[in-house]
Each structure stands twice: as C-alpha cells, then as structure tokens.
Amino acid sequence: MRMIMHGIMYRVMIIFALVFITSCGLTEVKDNDSTEIINMLINIPSEKYVINGTYNALLAYKGWGELYNKHMAAARDQGSLNDVKIYLLLGFVAQLKAQVATSEAFSSDFYDIFVRHPDVVLEAFKQNPYLVLSGCYYIGNYFGFESKNAEKKAVFIETYEEKIQNHLRVGGGDRCMAQILMPKRPQY
Amino acid sequence: MTTNYTINISRSGNTGILSFSHGSINVSTICWWDVNVKIDVGTYTGFATRMANKNDGFTGAKREGIWLGINVPFNNGTNTSNEFFIHKGTSPSWSDGCIVIFESSLIKVWSSISPKDTANVTINITDD
User: Fold this and answer.
1) Exposed end of chain A (fewer CB within 10 Å): N or C?
2) CA pair distance B105, A48, nearest whole angstrom
C-alpha cells in the first residue's frame, strides 16, 4: 500500500511539474507532448497511435523515441532552463516507467548535456529536487556504459563535485554524488 | 503466408546462449543483460525493428533491435516494461535491461527476419 501511495504521489508531482513548466513561458511543454507524457504515466493509450481502431504499441514506442530525440536535442543544443527541465522530466519518467531502452539513451546522452550546461542542469535540479536521483544516476551510469568513458569519471568528479555540492540544497549534493560515484537505479 | 521466426534464449547465471536458425543462417551466441533487470522466463512476441533513439546502427541508421513488445514482466513479476530489446553489445555494461549480443550475430538474426516491424518473432526465454 505504501509503495502504491508513493507511486501515486510521484505521478501527481509530475503532473504539477508539467503544469509548472508550461506556465514558465519561453520553451514549454507543447500540448501534444504533455498529453503524451501524462498518458504514458498513467497507461492511457494515446489516440494518435490508434490505427484503424487498433492501438499500435510499436508506433507508440517510436513516437516516444521521437519525443525523446526532440527534447534531447533542445537540451543539448539550446540548453535553456526549460529545455533541460523537460529533458530531465523525461529521464525521470523513464525510470518510473522502467523504459529500459530510453534509460540506455539517457545513460549515453545526458553527460554531454551536463558538461555543456552544468549551471543550467544544477538549477533545474535545485528547482525540482525529485529529478536529482534519476538525473545523477544517468551521469554515473555514463562512466563505463557500453564499455566506454570509464576513464572520464575521476576528472568529472574533480571538476564538478564542488559545484554540485554548492548548487544543490542540503542533502541534494550528497544524493547526486552518491549516484555519480556508484549509480543505483532509483526505486519508486 | 507469413514466416514466423524463433529466438531461444537459455540463461544460466548471469549469461545465456541466444540461438536462432532460419534457412542457411544459424546463430548460437553468448548474451548478457543488466543483472538487476532480469526478464521473466516466458514466451514473448517480438518485432525486428530499429531503436528510436540510438543512431549507431550497422549501416549508420538507427540501431537494429528485436523488440519484445509491451507489458513484459521482469524481476519475478514485480514490474513490467514496454522497452525490452535484443540489441548489440559486448557485455552487461551495454544494458539497462535489454538483452545484448555481439553486433555480428545481431545483424545476422535481424537481417534474416522479414518483414520488419511485424509481430513475427517468437522469443522463448528459459532458465537452466
């Protein structure tokens, strides 16, 4: 029962987060995207993937992938606070919904976004502490993922640990660093 | 008449053997997965397709994979995922839950399956 309540609480938090991001101006979650994210969270098949009366789950997976690609590119190339928030929200959803293929993409892609825009990412974490565990998990998982980049870990920690600790609220820095040092899939 | 293909995955400990046979193509190769995310023993209907957000396919297109469909249970039925694939990889470090095999083997299997994006693959996962 406690786990179910936690799950419901996380979903409510995400819906509030979507409303918050949408109300921030500049980049925002477009209506079609927010509908798809909410549908994903609560297992409602999106109508856009119903073809001739039948839900096409493979098309839905690919549509979610395109959503990921769009927001990953925006976070990487534009790197506004809202771009990064939306991308981090998708990363949180990937953990919450056990989207293992999407998680693998995050484990490859998020490090580069952090390194390009560290202050923006940390501000997004600061404003949304529930995104810290999943986001920092992806950074930690990057080192050694697909048998690559393990050698970058020590330099990353040396470069960013103080910044991470200074930006995040009490406890947030420690939680993030713990995931970077020894990534452990967050449990919700 | 649609051809149906079969992939057998026999696991023992933290590795397994993936086998596939069609026409002159015979594959029997070691496979890995993230030991913290273990797909439950069972039979699943798969699709040969391309992964949506990996751009390192054999010919530079999106990565080739065999999708296991929706609501696939893992960790003794404690959760399900819509995103399990069999895709390329050389160790468990390539996986956050997917089953990985050497790219050369994956391409042999993937290329044999036609048409793509069709529910024409039976995937049997067993534990020794």
Assistant:
1) N
2) 35
- pLDDT of amino acid A149: 98
Quick: pLDDT tens for B73-82.
999 999 999 9
pLDDT at A170: 81
Report, as ranges of residue numbers, the positions in chain A whose pLDDT lies below 50. Answer: 20, 22-25
pLDDT at A30: 77
Secondary structure class of B4 (helix, strand, coil): coil
Indicate the pTM of the whole model. Answer: 0.90
A44 touches chain B (CB under 8 A): no
CB atoms within 10 A of CB A45: 14
CB–CB of A108 and B74 under 8 A?
A: no
CA distances from A33 to A36, A39, A85, A155 (A): 5, 10, 14, 36
**Domain contains A187:** no
Which of these, B33, B86, B91, B82, lies nearest to A63 by C-alpha position?
Answer: B82
Given CB atoms, is B97 within the 8 Å cutoff of chain A? yes
CATH number assigned to the domain with residue range B5-127, chosen from the 4 options 3.30.1560, 3.30.160, 2.60.40, 2.40.440:
2.40.440
Residue ranges for chain B with pLDDT beneath 50: none
Determine the pLDDT at residue B1.
Answer: 61
Report the residue of chain A nearest B47, measured CA to CA: A58
Q: How many domains does chain A have?
A: 1
Asked if residues A125 and A85 have their Cβ atoms less than 8 Å apart, the reply is no
* Best of B51, B68, B96 to mutate (most A CBs within 10 Å, chain A): B96
pLDDT in tens, A3-31: 555 555 655 555 555 554 544 445 777 77
Residue A160 lies in a domain: yes
In-domain check, residue A22: yes
Interface contact B5, partner A, CB < 8 A? no
